[in-house]
């Protein structure tokens, strides 16, 4: 019995992409936790040493929140995606590429703030973090753009507003992280870190859409939640 010969890049289901993505996201969270270490200290100085590494705690809080929101959004996206093509695989890999690198600027920010919270190195560090965080948002823009170009990749009952709202929220995140980086460079690095901590909270709270101003229900249609 002969088999049909496959030509070019064939579309596939989402199973392998989801499994690979979950693995990468789990490793990304684990790498963040490795930045929390037992600080060197003299006998009786553990409490002071633990307090002195407060920048590491802030960095972990900001980055863990960000990766957690990415995981939630990713799960909700793949509830709606029916099949994958090459463009969607590329966008998903770009998202994982930026997410896996997040531990690097997190460590840089923690070290720079520990040395001098208002110094030039801290300003460069928050700019680096903001740049990568904005790149992660732009990878979501690419993801949604591919879904807009290839709506047949989606399940047939997906909300009409899902892709459009996803792109808007992703652009908003890129602009917000970019603005936070400028704030840290021009005003104070700690202000940027405060924004880094707050933005994942905002996206988690508004993960089902923004209120439409009439009855307080999330904007959009259908029973599935909106994600950025």
UniProtKB/TrEMBL annotation:
Similarity annotation: Belongs to the TMEM175 family.
UniProt protein name: DUF1211 domain-containing protein
Membrane topology type: Multi-pass membrane protein
A Pfam family recorded for this sequence: TMEM175
Keywords: Ion channel, Ion transport, Membrane, Potassium, Potassium channel, Potassium transport, Transmembrane, Transmembrane helix, Transport
Reactions mediated catalytically: K(+)(in) = K(+)(out)
Keyword Transferase: no
Transmembrane as UniProt keyword: yes
Organism of origin: Streptomyces bangladeshensis
Compartments (UniProt record): Membrane
InterPro entries according to UniProt: TMEM175-like (IPR010617)
Transmembrane segments: 20-37, 57-73, 93-113, 125-144, 174-205
């Amino acid at each position: 019995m002969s088999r049909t010969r496959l030509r070019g890049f064939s579309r596939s289901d989402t199973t392998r992409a989801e499994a690979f993505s979950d693995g990468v996201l789990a490793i990304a969270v684990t790498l963040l936790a490795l930045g929390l270490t037992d600080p060197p200290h003299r006998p009786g100085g553990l409490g002071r040493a633990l307090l002195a590494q407060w920048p590491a705690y802030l960095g972990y809080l900001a980055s863990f929140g960000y990766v957690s929101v990415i995981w939630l959004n990713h799960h909700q996206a793949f509830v709606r995606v029916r099949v994958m093509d090459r463009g969607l695989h590329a966008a998903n890999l770009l998202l994982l590429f930026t997410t896996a690198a997040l531990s690097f600027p997190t460590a840089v920010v923690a070290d720079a703030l520990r040395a001098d919270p208002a110094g030039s190195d801290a300003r460069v560090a928050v700019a680096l973090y903001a740049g990568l965080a904005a790149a992660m948002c732009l990878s979501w823009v690419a993801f949604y753009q591919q879904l807009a170009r290839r709506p047949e990749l989606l399940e047939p009952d997906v909300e009409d507003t899902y892709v459009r709202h996803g792109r808007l929220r992703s652009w908003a995140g890129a602009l917000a992280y970019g603005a936070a980086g400028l704030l840290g460079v021009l005003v104070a690095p700690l202000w940027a870190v405060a924004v880094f901590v707050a933005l994942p909270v905002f996206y988690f709270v508004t993960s089902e859409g923004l209120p439409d101003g009439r009855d307080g229900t999330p904007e959009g249609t259908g029973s599935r939640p909106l994600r950025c």
